[in-house]
C-alpha cells in the first residue's frame, strides 16, 4: 500500500506557558504518538512564526459536540513521548479557550480519561474543575507495600507527598525551588518503584515564609514530557492539596501558585472538587504534514 502526505490544520495555545498544539479529532492522523513526538520536540519541532519557543508540551486532539447544553469537548492529550495523559489542567483550560473560539460559548463540559470536568470562562480567566485530590495508595497509585498514604516520606533522597490530581504527583516542599537541580533529582523519583505508573515530580516553596497564605512557587518535571515545563495545572493543585494535608495551610480560599510561566489560582475545599483558574493565550495557527495510507 502506498502512502500520501496529508496537510492538517492546527492551532497553538498556552496556559501560563504550558503550550499545546490543538488538532480537531476528526483529522486523519494514523499515528498520534509519532506526530506528537515529531512536532513537540523542542529542538526540531513546530516553529513559531514570531520567534517563540519551538515545539510544545503535547498535542490536544479535541472533538466538539455542540448539541449538548453546555457543549461538550472530548479531550485526548498525547504527550511528546507518545503516551496519553489521563488529565491535564492547563490543557483542559486551553481546550475550553479553543471551544470558546469555535462557537462563542463560555461554559463547557470536558470529557477526559480522568472524568468529565466543568470549565467556565469569565473575561480573561478560565476555571476548570479538577476533581477531588486523592491520597489513597490505590488511587495515586502506589506500590502494594503502602497500606496508607505516602505523606512526607523519603523517595530517592527527596521528601515527598504523593497525591493524584488527575495524574500522580510527588510533591516536595523545599526552602527555594530555584536552589534545587530539578532535572538532576526528578528522574529517580519519577521512575521510583513506589510509583508503578510513574509520577510527576513537583517542587514547591512558600512565596513568603512568614505568611503561608501568600501562596507557593512551583516547578514540575512532567511524566510524558520527561522534562520541566513552564507550568503544570495538576501540579499546582497537587501543591495546595499537599500543603493542606501536611498542615502548611488550612484555608479553603483561593491560593496563589506561581510556576515559571505565570500565576494560577487554586481552590482545594475541605470536601468536593478542586478548581484551577488562570489565563490562556492563542499563539498562532498553521499546518502539519502527516503520512496517511493511500489507495
TrEMBL record:
Protein name: Diaminopimelate epimerase
Pfam family, one: DAP_epimerase
Chain's gene name: dapF
Family classification: Belongs to the diaminopimelate epimerase family.
InterPro entries named in the record: DAP_epimerase_DapF
GO CC entries: cytosol
Species: Natronocalculus amylovorans
Keyword Cell membrane recorded: no
Any GO BP: lysine biosynthetic process via diaminopimelate
GO molecular function term, any single one: diaminopimelate epimerase activity
UniProt-annotated binding residues for substrate: 18, 79, 89-90, 200, 222-223, 233-234
Function per UniProt: Catalyzes the stereoinversion of LL-2,6-diaminopimelate (L,L-DAP) to meso-diaminopimelate (meso-DAP), a precursor of L-lysine.
Lineage: Archaea, Methanobacteriati, Methanobacteriota, Stenosarchaea group, Halobacteria
Subcellular compartments: Cytoplasm
UniProt-annotated catalytic positions: 88, 232
Coiled coil region boundaries: none
Domain of life per record: Archaea
Catalyzed chemical reaction(s): (2S,6S)-2,6-diaminopimelate = meso-2,6-diaminopimelate
Keyword vocabulary terms for this entry: Amino-acid biosynthesis, Cytoplasm, Isomerase, Lysine biosynthesis
Keyword set includes Membrane: no
Subunit architecture: Homodimer.
Pathway listed: Amino-acid biosynthesis; L-lysine biosynthesis via DAP pathway; DL-2,6-diaminopimelate from LL-2,6-diaminopimelate: step 1/1
Amino acid at each position: 500500500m502506498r502512502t500520501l502526505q496529508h496537510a492538517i490544520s492546527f492551532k497553538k495555545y498556552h496556559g501560563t506557558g504550558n503550550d499545546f498544539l490543538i488538532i480537531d479529532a476528526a483529522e486523519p492522523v494514523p499515528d498520534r504518538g509519532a506526530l506528537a513526538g515529531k512536532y513537540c520536540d523542542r529542538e526540531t519541532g513546530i516553529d513559531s512564526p514570531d520567534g517563540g519557543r519551538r515545539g510544545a508540551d503535547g498535542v490536544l486532539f479535541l472533538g466538539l459536540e455542540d448539541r449538548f447544553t453546555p457543549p461538550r469537548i472530548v479531550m485526548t492529550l498525547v504527550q511528546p513521548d507518545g503516551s496519553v495523559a489521563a488529565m491535564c489542567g492547563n490543557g483542559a483550560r486551553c481546550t475550553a479557550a479553543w471551544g470558546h473560539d469555535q462557537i462563542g460559548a463560555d461554559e463547557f463540559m470536558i470529557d477526559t480519561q480522568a472524568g468529565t470536568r466543568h470549565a467556565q470562562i469569565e473575561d480573561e480567566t478560565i476555571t476548570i474543575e479538577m476533581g477531588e485530590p486523592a491520597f489513597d495508595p490505590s488511587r495515586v497509585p502506589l506500590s502494594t507495600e503502602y497500606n496508607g498514604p505516602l505523606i512526607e516520606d523519603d523517595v530517592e533522597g527527596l521528601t515527598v507527598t504523593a497525591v493524584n490530581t488527575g495524574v500522580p504527583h510527588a510533591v516536595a516542599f523545599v526552602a527555594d525551588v530555584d536552589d534545587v537541580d530539578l532535572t538532576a533529582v526528578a528522574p529517580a523519583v519519577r521512575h521510583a518503584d513506589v510509583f508503578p505508573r510513574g509520577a510527576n515530580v513537583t517542587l514547591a516553596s512558600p512565596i513568603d515564609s512568614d505568611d503561608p497564605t501568600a501562596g507557593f512557587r512551583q516547578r514540575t518535571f512532567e511524566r510524558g514530557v520527561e522534562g520541566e515545563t513552564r507550568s503544570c495545572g495538576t501540579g499546582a493543585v497537587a501543591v495546595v492539596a499537599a500543603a493542606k494535608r501536611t498542615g502548611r495551610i488550612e484555608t479553603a480560599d483561593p491560593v496563589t501558585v506561581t510556576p515559571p510561566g505565570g500565576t494560577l489560582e487554586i481552590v482545594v475545599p475541605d470536601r468536593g472538587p478542586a478548581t484551577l483558574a488562570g489565563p490562556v493565550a492563542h499563539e498562532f495557527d498553521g499546518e502539519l504534514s502527516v503520512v496517511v495510507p493511500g489507495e
